[in-house]
Write a structure and sequence with these properties.
heterodimer, A: 756 residues, alpha+beta, Protein Transport Mog1p, Chain A, seven-stranded antiparallel sheet, 21 strands, 17% strand, flat, B: 119 residues, Arc Repressor Mutant, subunit A, 2 domains, three-stranded antiparallel sheet, elongated
């Protein structure tokens, strides 16, 4: 791999072409592809604009351009570039004026009477040297600026630098090139532009930073617990301020999520959406990308395409962040999330670029995208990934033709400066992002969150493994892949399975862990209302919370299980199958409390409540959630045992679900068969003919349900259906026993008989 | 008296109300411990309080003295200062640049309706 110096003009041209490509793709495919695709493409464009070195590839766009240049005469080279400039690519006069100064060398060499070397090699000895020093400052100063600068973004450049936009729009590119002989002046103008841009950014950035610094730490149990559950490698803190109107995040290394005070007072239950949104920004280093964007803008301030990138990349970062948040919360959260966003917009007072704000950029576009959000299909994601790769290969690379002359340049003193630059090949970076993207997009997991918490190095492998796995097994895997960071890793792979009106329900669920416990909370339709408590988004009177009754401060502190049970009975609860319940007539509320014993001494209470009239529906789901409550034993075995518990829970729950489904299927088949005997035929196993006497004998269904028991070992299952036959006594049931065998994909009846 | 203070400024005043006259250095130490502010942040806030007439600076040692009792302070509203600074050309230029203007009440209402309907 050869590294090559690319001057600012080339960076601007290639970057510009890439930006145009992305804009085009965005226009075409915005609604089809995951939004993440575009933010990755933007990141590529950004790197192209900022990183002066890149790897070579035979089929790069650069080589295409250069081949054309080499083939043509000097005159036509100028023409081509002139075309590039004055033609569709750069429509604005300002570009050219700025471009020349910064990267004068290239253009000067184009005019230089030494033909063969000319534009492609970039530097003919004499002018090259001189100009390179200028270029050096340009691109070297830049990384430094990236660190420190960053304030908001200078529209003022327009005013401030009006004087340095000397060209009239009527100029053809060709004339401009001629004009380049006065490149020195223009170069200075270009640098001045960059410096002014940077100064404005820096000033705004520092001003905002100063204000943010005065924020007060948020002392809020819910927020603390939330942070605890979503731990990253970087220490994230949450602060509140009465001087901002919408939430934002600043800082890359030690990110701070800043929440407006009024929001905390009004909308506590929206907090989880907001925190999650900000955390996604943090996790994706969006703050760093925004700083890079500012740097690119300062450097290429003369290129209107870069300004367009600034606008659209900002939007796409938000859109793809929204997308991720919805993937985590599920589609049911769309409405709540969209309303949260609109609420932000109502409160917002001014924009603060460079900070990843929650209520930012084209809100309408975002709300629309949120309401349209659907899980992307795998094929879409594959297409998106391929597109990113293709664009990456074409644009992120520099051609060999360009790379070669660089070798000859080694003796120039300036080269040293470039060698000192970080030589990370951009393509490598992209594949990294890409891999990450593929997993995220595949929809099956966000194991990444958990992995990120436990160790960045292995994060990718872990989630790659998870990408395809689903269901119960995925839990095991995600658990072991994630290691210690318990809270998040299994977060998106669990399912809550329970029976509702005889039908198995299966909902994607998150494993929430608090101090000493774990519980599955459905991902969609539930939100936290406080530490260790969750409520339904549809009905805020449906709540579930857990508490350690043996902890200091609890009403039952110092009680053992027996004493707590007595206390509950004293409060009007009734006991039923180990669950305590009571109905409060005054406010029409059903209350349940379940007790769990941990380490033989601590007593935990899982309480849930819903309106009395809704207990049929909600009660079942609440009970199912409560059943998943697990105490994490103290000590290092905690993690493993939690995972084991949940896997066992799964197997059992899935089996139950399967059995119920089978029972339902069987009932409907049999019911039909009583009316029309022949309708059972398709469901009979090979070589078994049902004795129609049996069907005739059945008068009606008996009391009691259909029970199905699987015998997975020998692949058959036995169902027992209680029925009334012509011979059965008035007050008793007979049992129809049905044995089923699996033939291929289907279960077939291989025996039926009536048992008295 | 009509002095409006932000939360962060109130935090500084809180130290003075609790402990009586205190040097700037001590305030900074206390707040560093309590809320993690660095010295510059605290000094900036103290200066702002002096500017608003809530604190008087007395020598020696930059001794800070609260000029107003807790009862007379009103919560400042967000965010006059910012408005003054950003409501110049920068903000407008920005809005145009980023392609986001403040939405009108009607627009917000429409958006809400859209969300409600599409569920």
């Amino acid at each position: 791999m050869s590294l090559v110096r690319v001057n600012l003009l080339y960076m601007s041209i290639y970057g510009g072409i890439l930006i145009l490509t992305v804009l085009f793709l965005r226009l075409l495919l915005k609604k089809r592809l995951p939004k993440r695709t575009f933010s990755i493409l933007w990141c590529m464009a950004l790197l192209r604009l900022l990183v002066p070195v890149s790897v070579d590839a035979p089929f790069s766009i650069a080589s295409v351009i250069q081949e054309r240049l080499l083939a043509d005469s000097e005159e036509s080279q100028v023409n081509l570039l002139a075309e590039l400039f004055s033609g569709g690519l750069y429509s604005g006069e300002s570009i050219v004026s700025g471009k020349n100064p910064m990267s004068g060398e290239n253009l000067v060499s184009g005019e230089n009477p030494v033909p063969g070397e000319s534009i492609v090699s970039g530097e003919s000895p004499e002018p090259g040297k001189k100009i390179m020093s200028g270029k050096n400052t340009g691109s070297e100063g830049n990384p430094g600026r990236r660190e420190t600068t960053g304030g908001s973004f200078p529209d003022r450049t327009g005013d401030g630098i009006a004087g340095s936009r000397p060209m009239e729009s009527g100029w053809s590119g060709r004339e401009l090139f001629r004009g380049l002989q006065e490149g020195d002046l223009l170069r200075k103008a270009g640098m001045t532009g960059s410096v002014i841009c940077a100064a404005i950014f820096l000033a705004l950035y520092l001003y905002c930073l100063g204000r943010f610094r005065t924020a007060l730490p948020l002392e809020d149990l819910f927020a603390e617990q939330w942070l605890e559950r979503n731990r990253l490698l970087r220490k994230v803190s949450i602060c509140q301020s009465d001087r901002i109107s919408s939430p934002l995040t600043y800082g890359v290394v030690r990110p701070v999520i800043l929440l407006p005070k009024q929001l905390l007072q009004e909308d506590r239950h929206k907090m989880e959406y907001i925190l999650q949104h900000e955390l996604v920004h943090v996790r994706r280093f969006d703050g760093a990308w925004k700083l890079a964007m500012a740097a690119a803008l300062c450097l290429h301030w003369f290129n209107p395409l870069v300004w367009m990138m600034y606008v659209f990349m900002n939007r796409d970062l938000e859109l793809s962040c929204d997308e991720e948040v919805l993937r985590i919360f599920g589609t049911k959260a769309r409405k709540g999330y969209a309303l949260t966003l609109i609420g932000m917009e109502e409160d917002r007072q001014f924009s603060m670029p460079l900070y990843s704000g929650f209520g930012k950029s084209a809100v309408e576009e975002r709300v629309g995208a949120i309401m349209r959000y659907k899980k992307k299909r795998k094929i879409t994601i594959v297409i998106a990934a391929m597109m990113v790769l293709t664009v990456g290969c074409i644009f992120a690379t520099t051609s060999r033709a360009e790379a070669d002359p660089a070798a000859g340049d080694k003796d120039l003193p300036e080269v040293g400066a470039y060698d000192a630059l970080p030589m990370d090949p951009p393509v490598g970076t992209f594949t990294g992002i890409d891999g990450l993207y593929g997993n995220t997009g595949s929809g099956a997991t966000t194991g990444m969150d958990g992995n990120a918490a436990s160790g960045a190095g292995t994060a990718m492998d872990g989630s790659a493994g998870l990408g395809t796995a689903t269901g119960a097994d995925a839990n095991g895997e995600s658990g072991s892949a994630g290691g210690t960071g318990l809270s998040a890793e299994g977060e998106n792979t669990y399912r809550l399975i329970y029976m509702k009106e005889g039908m198995p329900e299966s909902e994607p669920a998150r494993l929430m862990t608090g101090p000493g416990y774990g519980i599955l909370i459905p991902r969609e339709g539930w939100t936290a209302f406080g530490p260790d408590g969750w409520m339904s988004e549809d009905n805020h009177e449906v709540e579930l919370w857990v508490a350690n009754f043996s902890a200091e401060g609890s009403d039952y502190y110092g009680f053992d299980r027996q004493q707590i049970a007595e206390a509950l009975l004293g409060e009007g609860y009734q006991e039923e199958n180990g669950c305590y319940w009571k109905y409060e007539e005054t406010n029409d509320r059903m209350m349940w409390v379940e007790l769990r014993l941990a380490d033989d001494q601590e007593v935990w209470g899982i309480s849930y409540t819903c309106p009395g009239e809704a207990q049929e529906g909600w009660g079942v789901e609440l009970r199912a959630m409560a059943q998943t409550f697990t105490v994490i034993p103290s000590g290092s075995a905690g993690t493993d045992s939690l995972i084991e518990t949940y896997n066992a829970y799964y197997r059992e729950a899935e089996e139950r679900a399967l059995e119920a489904e089978m029972a339902r299927w069987l009932s409907s088949r049999l019911e039909a068969a009583f009316v029309d005997h022949a309708s059972i035929d398709p469901y009979l196993a090979d070589g078994y003919d049902v004795d129609t006497d049996i069907l005739d004998a059945i008068r009606e269904w008996g009391q009691g349900e259909t029970h199905v028991r699987f015998h997975p070992t020998d692949g058959h299952c036995v169902a027992s259906v209680s029925v009334k036959t012509t011979e059965s006594e008035e007050d008793s049931n007979d049992y129809l026993t049905v044995e089923l065998l699996k033939e291929g994909e289907d279960w077939k009846i291989c025996f039926m008989g009536i048992e008295k | 008296m009509d002095i409006k203070l932000f939360d962060s400024e109130l935090k500084v005043m809180g130290v003075l109300w609790k402990r009586g006259d205190t040097t700037a250095k001590q305030i900074s130490d206390i707040l560093k411990e309590e809320v993690g502010w660095n010295m510059n942040t605290t000094y900036t806030l103290i200066k702002r309080c002096i500017g608003k007439g809530a604190i008087e600076r007395r020598e020696p040692n930059f001794m800070c003295h609260a000029l107003i009792p807790r009862e007379e302070v009103q919560a400042a509203e967000t965010d006059e200062l910012i408005d003054r600074i950003f409501d110049g050309s920068a903000d407008k230029l920005f809005a145009a640049l980023i392609g986001r203007k403040k939405l009108s009440k009607e627009q917000i209402g429409k958006l809400k309706q859209l969300v409600e309907e599409s569920e």
